[in-house]
Design goal:
72% of the residues lie in helices and 8% in strands. The chain has 159 residues and is mainly alpha-helical. A 3-stranded antiparallel β-sheet has the order 1-3-2.
Length: 159
Amino acid sequence: MDCCSEEKRKLIEEIGVRFEQVHQLAPLAARIYGIMILSPKDGHTFDEILSITCASKSSVSTHLNHLLQLKKVEYFTKPGDRKRYFRASSYYLKNTLEEYYENINEELKLIDKIINFNKDNNTQKFQSTGQIALLFREYLESQKMNIENVINKMSKIEI
């Protein structure tokens, strides 16, 4: 990453580490995604990404294709230029919120099963600690509504 400032390299690394954890991305894919998000240009060519990452062609190609499949990255072409230019999806933040929304839905399904099981089969446990699970469920519902509101607002903004 010798074409980036020290500050940008550090931020790409920080973004990369976070995206590895949150989005379950491979390290190189997470860093490519970070590069795309921080790019001041209207996209990067494949060769530019190679130069920035110092990774092999096959690795960069594999991870770019994965990011394209996940809709985290998109490509476009310029008239008269055969090269593809890659950039972060215009909707990467909205897509991230949609992922969180789905995770919350899955968590709600599981917490409901736990609550119902303990209510029916562990009555004493449910009476003593069931309120904690109900509070957690309430928290998840409020997060779900909040995310839904933000996604709706984002959908109204033209990019």
